[in-house]
Design brief:
The protein is α/β, with parallel strands linked by helices. It is 34% helix and 24% strand. The chain has 42 helices and 52 strands. Helix 6 links the parallel strand 5 and strand 6. It starts with a strand and ends with a strand.
Length: 837
Amino acid sequence: MTYSLVDTSANLLLPGSAAIVNAATAVAVTDPILIADANALLALNANTSYSLSDTASNLLAPADAATVSAAVALSITDAVSVASADALLALNVNTSYGLSDSAVNLLDPLASATVSAATEVTPLQDISMQDANGLLLLNPNTFYQISGTAAELLNPLDAPAVSAATGVIVTDIVAMADADALLALNGAASYDLSDTAANLLAPVAAATVSAANSVTVQDQVSVADADALLALNANTTGYVLYDSAANLLVPAAAATVSGATAVAAAEFITVADADALLALNANTSYGLWDTAANLLAAAAAATVAGANALLVEEALTVAEANTLLGLNPNTSYGLADAAADLLATADAATVAAAAFVTVSDSATVADADALLTLNGNTSYGLFDTAEALAAASAAVGQNATWSIATTLATAAQATAINAILIGATNSYSVSDTVAALLEPADAAAVELAQTVLVTVPAVSVAAAGAVLALNAQTGGYELSDSAANLLAPLDAVTVIAASAITVTDAISIADAGALLLLNSNSFYGLVDTGADLVLADAAIVHGAQNVIVTDTLLVADATTLLGEIAPAATLTYSLTDTAADLAAASLTLLTGATSITVSGPASVAHATTLHGELPAINYSVADTAAALAAALDSASPNLAALDAAITIGVTDPGLNLTVNADAFANLLSGPTLLVANDTIAIDGADVSANLGTLDYFGGDVTLGITLGGSQNGSYIVDMGTSGERVITMEGTGQQQITAASGTLEQFVMGATATGGSTLANLEVGDRIDVSGGGHMDLVTEVASGAQVTAEGLWAFDGNVLTYWDFNDAAAEALALQFASGATTLELQSSHHSFTVV
């Protein structure tokens, strides 16, 4: 028997198959096999045909060259170099292989056929754009990672090659726009960023920044921006911080500040803050603004010297200024020193360069002239003879802050001193004839002198004291001054001796009493609380020329005060009292008040009285429902008072106001609102009365409004923007109600309602409740209203809801009109309430 075998290598190599394989005339292996399995089968049967699939190292073993050459086909399971592929192809031209080698080897002209025939090509290293294009021309199944400059990678002609790369490495630093363009071509791009903070922190840039290998900020950034960039990419470097010291020195910012290339404080800072910043980052630029003590501290020398500029908080001595200028010539300073030090010849330049100069002791007029020649922004006090002060130049006088005359001045010299030293506090004494003291041209100078005889009829306490210091026999003067000055304990003798006193500001009851004890011939105005004024001695109040009450008065207190003030005096007051007390007050008392506040609600009667007397007064009304309903009638004399009220409220326990259409229209016509806890019912001898479209009118919208009742009124109404959520129908009147748009409403048939009403504009979610008809239990829906003949039956036919009213033992109906989107009714589980759907 002769045979040939065709089977898998696994079956052919079974130990029990050896004899069968050996005896076959030919053997064909159906699957690719390893070189070892091929050798085993050839050992059993030399007439074996096979395909090989193995690693390059196994296939290139010299001992297996014949086995490889005899194979029908070769499949190399791992990637091979060009040299290995060439070796295998030399053994067997039917070799299938993938290449992995250097770009140099792959692009060798001698290797082009080998590269083109590969199933895939993978360079071992990153390759240039030129190499990538070359390899793709040889073999489009080339898998490579490309590297190059942004300009090379973004060449439009190379876009396909960039997009096809397994990775892209940008060899130079790129801006945001280039990085985004590269990522759009290839999401695996690897790059370093350098751009402005604004571009880097744009929200759309977050992913690009985060993915960068490193980020360099081109311009100055705040700590917050630097933190934001570091949060996006911890490899952010090269940033320069420009921020306030407060932000730079926040403990949480320490690492950010330390990592900056440079730091610039946005404002002048203290030495301590500069030291702290320099400790964090030695490349910090700053300007200093600190005290002289801190700037001159020995430990601060280097910090001071390194500042861009110095500002000294307080004035320096000449010596201190010289020291700071030696450390840092960019120092801005002011000087405060003795005249002798300021005028030292060696320090002339220091004095001349100062922002300002203050003489800490005093200067003569000659000294002042010399200092102004050095520095025109010099201020000083003058201590010189009256003659020298009176002869000083205008320039000397302009910069003087004070002067003391060391000799007695004539009245004319005093006038000259005040004219020349116009901005200074001048201290001098006048000694001159009486005629000279009374010269009009010298009056001001005489009044300001330290020692002077003043003949002015009414003078200040200070001027009168000066007169008394000069001449204790001087009398007949009147005082006109503030209460504080008149009541100063040291001036009591001066006040007691005055012939009359006028208080220039308004005083309290307590101050007026104290002043009258010193001098009973006092003229004053009072400003105090109502309580203090009412409890005060009536004589003190009566003696005032005017009285101002700082808080509000009760009617009774205002009456008391008006009875106490003098006939020619005025009383300025406001009132806060109950409506009853205000209504009982005189019209004169009410109209004399600057403002009136009604505490608590007024009755209809009191409101009418107050409104009649004071139409602009604000009040609310609370009364019985009957009184309010009567007052809202068009014929009521109280209607105007109710229309002017802020709110009206019912005092009856039920908190319900029942009015007819006329009264309801009057309530709606004005700004008056029903108080929040009350409800309203509209019922009267009204037949199809049109209530119009309702706006919000107050009350408890959750309990709603009732239409009809014992008087069987019927109404036409559009709920508008009233906000009422429950509309109850009562009585035999047939209501025509247009539901509000956008408000979920419940329409309730009350216990006395008999149907026949129309509900329009019903929206999805609106409800109709017929529970007022007794213990309703609507369980059976019938086809038409005519079939509703017994308890529990209901029908909705032709947009008419018909139901059995247990109380009336009859079928009752409601005509319904739906708004857009609503189509029918759905009976709820309560069996007496319907929802519009």
